[in-house]
Amino acid sequence: MINTLVQAILLGGYYALIACGLAFMFQVMRIINLAHGSLAILSAYLVWMITDALSLSPFVSVLIILPIMALIGWLLQRVILERATQGGELLPVLTTFGLSIVIDNLLFQQFGANTRSLASAVGDLSWESYEVFGLWIGKLPVIILGTAIVVIGGLDLMLRFTSLGRQIRATAFDPDTAGLVGIDARKIAALSAAIAMMTVAISGTALGLRGTFDAYAGAPQLLFAFEATIIGGAGSLWGVLIGGMILAIAQSVGALIHPQGFLLGGHFIFLAFLFARIYLTREFFSLHHWFGKGTKKVVKHEN
Known about the structure:
mainly alpha; two-stranded antiparallel sheet; 12 helices; 77% helix
């Protein structure tokens, strides 16, 4: 059971990595990007092509595609999403859904139905493990979990302590008022989309390293990212990390109960959190709700 829990936490790191870009984009632009999974697969194919053509490590190839995906994100916001948001809340959702279909079919047209993987490009790292107290923990899942923590921590620090982060938060809160104080909301939205696509590039590489992918593998990745975001809360990047781990633990417990219960376990916990978020207040999910009252009592006693 302990081994299952440890492996689930490591899997949760991957879910958090693929979900943080989706949550970041929703936080800033209030857009649910249904092309998120397809764009992750696109980045996985780009890393695979560069790795195969130049005989590079995937860890180097991903550094090459980061600016490419950032440019794609910038163009996606300026050319498509910016105009789509002017048509109401539903139009961006439909637009990204259509974009995902276009990307999937273009990838299928180019690469066919054969699956690809980046695991062979990293040699023994794909299967090597650490032995910790009798448990075998894969090195690659540990790297992916560490990458998720670094990416989420980096985004959180950027939003809290940098000028760009303050402008992003101001634009997310009220783009019209942000414009009155000299913030270029269009530029900030495009930069945010570029940052989100860079996280998509990293998550697509992680997918290729830990398994196989094909042209139509984007839909399940979008589903996992969406479920982790809802469970953890779309307004918190660290919440997405916790949401990814809860999703993975539920899937692992489901697999223990029944061989086909892996996905059902995840869907069940997703629905439980979804209904809880609908019928319970937002404060119920905050740490202050559970620990804040105790803190007040201590302060009062000291006075």
